[in-house]
User: What shape does this take?
Amino acid sequence: MVTRVVPDQNVLAAATETAQKLAEKPADALQACKRLMRGPSREQLNQAITLENQEFSLRLHSADAKEGIAAFFQKRPPDFTRNHDAPAPEHA
Assistant: This one.
């Protein structure tokens, strides 16, 4: 998946910036995204949508989600726990 194109001389700086932004996100949510992006090529669309709904539901009630919402309303950067408070679904 391409999200940004940069000149050759800026590739390392852009990759480092992207990695830093990803490192600030909740790890369990990123892992869920990776699973979901890999899945649809192997699964039918309806099953992929069901899995996406399950992942979203698990993350919605996590400590990281509560922190993200609180940080948004308090206009501050989130401080994610980095612990996996939502169990991985059976298909992982």
